[in-house]
Amino acid sequence: MFQGNAIIGQSGGPTAVINASLCGIIQESLYQQSQGIGKVFGMRFGIEGFMRDEVLDLGQERSETIEQLKFTPSSALGSCRHKLKDAEFPNVLEQLKKYQIRYYFLIGGNDTMDTIHRVEKYCREQGYELRGIGVPKTVDNDLFATDHTPGFASAGRYVAMSVKQAGMLARDMKRVDQFVVFQTVGRSAGWLPAAAACAKKNEDDAPHLILLPERPFVLKQFLSEARLAYDRFGWVSVVCGEGVCYADGKPISASQTADKFSNVEFGAMGGSSAALVLHRILSNEFGWRGEFQVCESLQMCAADRAVPLDIEEAYACGREAVRLAVAGTSGVMVTIQRISNHPYKWSLGTAPLNEVALGEKPMPDEFICPNQLFVTEKCLEYLRPLIGELPDYVRLSNT
Question: What is the architecture, at CATH level 2, of domain 4-150+304-358?
Fold first, then answer.
């Protein structure tokens, strides 16, 4: 029997359901103590806190507290965005040995999977056996090899509900404000802005235009389509991903700030938000009055709009990670595989960490309309089972 303690960390931006995965890992680890897992520890503030010896004994928490993690937003352990340097690996190994860690679980996105992969590889080279499993998490939904990521469905519902309700406000206020721009998070993938399309039931419902990072921003086309929408409906609803760029790769937010992984920080000091830039473009071109809405991290932690399916899948991914490790598997990330849309069915699988760390999953071409400013019915077929039914608000006749 492979024996040792387990440790869990959370990295990157949170989601409304990341703690459901944490709950699953903790509960399954405690259940598997007879199969080799000893104590269950948590990294306070991810790998960065672990190197500083900020470690929690999760086995001392009340079982009721662990259970309620399923429905608690944000990152209960605390998160970080730290890229491990080569000189830090000996410190990590020293900490693993100090706490007798043999089971290593991280919940996160591409950069997190890269961290697990590099730590496990270093330990193997040093003759220290460690079983490392990644649990997927990102509202961006851009992780390679999985149908979707835990956290995306709830964030997508947040976006769809926000755009739907803000669109009703804009429609009824069109004599005052002629347009509204809603910005989602998402550096290079358009899954979240695409989720806004689930809000649209009638032709004049929001959104009218969706700007996706997978397609270059073409000013002339954008202004032309915005004018057409205004002429038809008397107002315009625009949804944009924060990472929308011009054809030369320059973000329309024009930020020059990058994080520790060399990712552009959209809307950071020295730049602007994409929504504000679009607001200025429309106002300057047409003289319209309008709103821009940038909710930033609220999409990542809105537990009031969490999708039950999302909670269920996040929790299942956590438990599966432990089962895999106990069975001898290492160096993989748990994945969600879609079996069918109608009815929606899913199962769990795995993908090698090195492939996940290097890959990204942009929206496929068949999900994007030919005019590049909306999504196709095929995309909606993918999204609707995850987002769930939205409220069907009434409307007065002839309005």
Answer: 3-Layer(aba) Sandwich (3.40)
Distances (CA, A) of 343 to 100, 339, 382, 383, 385: 45, 9, 12, 13, 8
Domain 154-302+361-387 has CATH 3.60.15.10: no
Spacing of C-alpha 99 from chain mean position = 31
Question: Could you tell me the residue ranges of all domains in the chain?
Answer: 4-150+304-358, 154-302+361-387
**Token duo for residue 59:** 């086995």
Q: Which residues contact 135 (CB under 8 A, 6 or more apart)?
A: 21, 25, 105, 106, 107, 108, 150, 317, 318, 321, 333, 334
CB 357 within 8 Å of CB 113: yes
Q: What is this structure's pTM? A: 0.93
| CA–CA gap between residue 399 and residue 204 (Å, rounded) | 11
d(CA 35, CA 3): 8
Same fold flag, 4-150+304-358 and 154-302+361-387: yes
Give first-to-last CA distance, the chain, whole Å.
Answer: 70
Three-state DSSP state, 377? helix
Q: At what angle do helices 110-125 and 89-98 cross, to 10 degrees?
A: 80
The pLDDT tens digits of the residues spanning 315-346 come to 999 999 999 999 999 999 999 999 999 999 99
CA distance 264 to 260: 10
Quick: pLDDT tens for 354-377: 999 878 899 999 999 999 999 999
Q: Please give the helix or strand (H or E) that residue 323 lies within, else none.
A: helix 308-326
Alpha helix stretches (DSSP H) within 143-294 = 152-172, 191-195, 219-233, 274-286
Catalytic site positions: 140
Using CA atoms, how far apart are residues 230 and 36, in angstroms rounded to an integer?
64
Taking CA atoms, 90 is separated from 122, 180, 254, in Å, by 9, 52, 39
Q: Hey, is 56 helix, strand or coil?
A: strand
